[in-house]
Design a protein that fits this description.
Blueprint: E1 9-12, E2 15-18, E3 21-24, E4 40-46, E5 51-56, E6 62-68, E7 70-77, E8 88-94, E9 99-103, E10 107-113, E11 117-123, E12 133-134, H1 155-159, H2 163-168, H3 173-177
Antiparallel strand pairs: 1-9, 2-3, 4-11, 5-10, 5-12, 6-9, 6-11, 7-8, 7-10
């Protein structure tokens, strides 16, 4: 059984379907356990086999929802003193069973597109790379049971250090961007 990370919240979303198609309300600020409102929305498109992660923020929360496809999601609590500190958690998000996923700041996240996947996400900070950090998706000290051993990775994700190194000497993504 996967342990639930403290502060992570999944929200079951309802599909309203009729002969014309369907409608899903994917977000309400009141659903989230935070007073910080969403300020930026993004869409990520990934072909099957792409793995994005592991990434983390010290100040920013994320809210994810899958628009199409299926994503295997991995989370790790990096918050010092949290009751679930260093606990990994995995789950699947799929468009045909819609759920929102709230990821608090300090919780690392990544996902594997198990099919061509469109992921929408909201943030409570404007992205500039200064609060974007990463570590190796397959760090053996975490014990995440990814459903692949050979994902398609970005150059950045391929070069990410171990979690221990990332926490010891964090390099923000803004530095990599130049």
């Amino acid at each position: 059984m996967t342990k639930i990370i403290d502060g992570v919240k999944t929200i079951d979303l309802e599909i309203h379907a009729d002969v014309r198609g369907s409608f899903v309300e994917f977000f309400r600020q009141s659903w989230l356990p935070t007073d910080h409102p969403a300020l930026q929305g993004n869409v990520s498109r990934s072909t099957s086999g792409v793995l994005r992660g592991m990434h983390f923020h010290r100040r920013q929360w994320d809210y994810w929802f899958v628009v199409s496809g299926t994503a295997f999601v991995a989370l790790v609590d990096l918050r010092a003193g949290s009751p679930t500190e260093r606990v990994p958690m995995t789950l699947r998000l799929a468009a045909d069973e819609p759920r929102g996923l709230f990821i608090p700041s300090g919780v690392a996240h990544g996902f594997l597109a198990e099919s061509d996947t469109v992921l929408g996400y909201l943030l409570d900070r404007y992205f500039d790379g200064s609060d974007e950090f990463g570590f190796a998706w397959n760090d053996p000290n975490l014990g995440i049971d990814w459903p692949t051993t050979d994902p398609i990775l970005s150059d950045r994700d391929r070069a990410n250090p171990s979690l221990a190194k990332a926490l010891e000497d964090p390099v923000p993504y803004a530095t990599i961007l130049g």
